[in-house]
Amino acid sequence: MRHTLALGAAAALFLSPLLVESLLGQQQEQPQRPGVQVGVPEGRQGGAGRQGGRGRQTGPAQPAPRRADGRVLLGFPAIEKKGVWLPGGGGGQTTGNRAEIPFQPWAEAVYADRGENQLEPHTRCKPSGGARQFLTPYGVEIVEMPELQRIYIFDIGGPHTYRTIYTDGRAHPADFTPTFYGHSIGWWEGDTLNVETAGFNEGFWIDRQGLPTTEKLRTLEKFTRMDAETIKYELTIDDPGAYTRPWTTGFNLRWEDGTELFEYVCQQANYAHNLMVGQFESVDRTTVTVP
Question: 140: closest CA among 51, 64, 75, 222?
Fold first, then answer.
């Protein structure tokens, strides 16, 4: 299955080169939406590039860190440096050029509705699979455990949960209990970690703009450590329940040096209540809006 999905990703890239483009360009394509970067710490709102400020270094980026055997690391050795990964460009989306997204009609209608009514499960402390995991203001911490043949990705903001990537060569289970993060298996190709995930539920948005997905969703993610401060992230979405073909998008993650995982209570002092119940005079209470 991993090879089939990888070939689909390559075909999508060849046929639609505009899908993997800058998020700033995507934000210009999209209509204005009510979401804001609530709670972004001082010094983390900046765009891409090494501009100094909190956790940022000036001058050329250093080479990517490596293990003793030469394999690149997605973080730094714990005894050397601590830090987190944040979305480049001051926070971003994943959708690329909307006109290039191969929506099925129902999925495009749902996407349009979510643009007007941003009642995202993530704002109610639900985990989010795919690229959405990396799009919170506080970033993520990636922890490699070679002795366990696993990689963990820890959320900081939002649900404060973690995702497991198995790198021991196992296959996906025959039967899934669908979950928010799905079941992830990973393998290395040079400096790129490939991660195939299946077994998603339908209870999350895969990005901050509200791309719909179904339980048929499979993703192929590519994490390429470019240097000490940058991971190139590519995502192929293969969901025959919502799209007419697989398609690919992506963005960069940037390193914020010195920040450690900290305690975060999802609903404490929540200033984004309009993202939970809307911003209208009356609210539809036919469905539960909080955990």
Answer: 75
Domain ranges of the chain: 2-27+82-257
Q: What is the DSSP string of 206-273?
A: SSTT-----TT-EEEEEEEEEETTEEEEEEEEE-TTTBSS-EEEEEEEEEEET-------TTTT-S-T
Q: Does residue 204 have a pLDDT over 60?
A: yes
- Look at residue 283 and tell me whether its pLDDT is greater than 70: no
Q: Summarize pLDDT for 156-171 with one digit per residue, the tens.
A: 887 888 999 999 999 9
* Side-chain half-sphere exposure of 248, counting CA atoms within 13 A: 21
Give me the residues paired with residue 141 across strands.
Answer: 154
Task: Check if the beta carbon of residue 156 is closer than 8 Å to that of residue 140.
Answer: yes
pTM: 0.76
Residue 191 CB burial class (10 angstroms; 0-12, 13-18, ≥19): middle
- Rounded Cα gap, residues 166 and 210, in angstroms: 28
Q: What is the pLDDT of residue 245?
A: 97
What confidence tens digit (pLDDT) does each residue in 46-66 have? 333 444 445 555 678 899 999
What amino acid is encoded at 286 in this protein? Answer: T
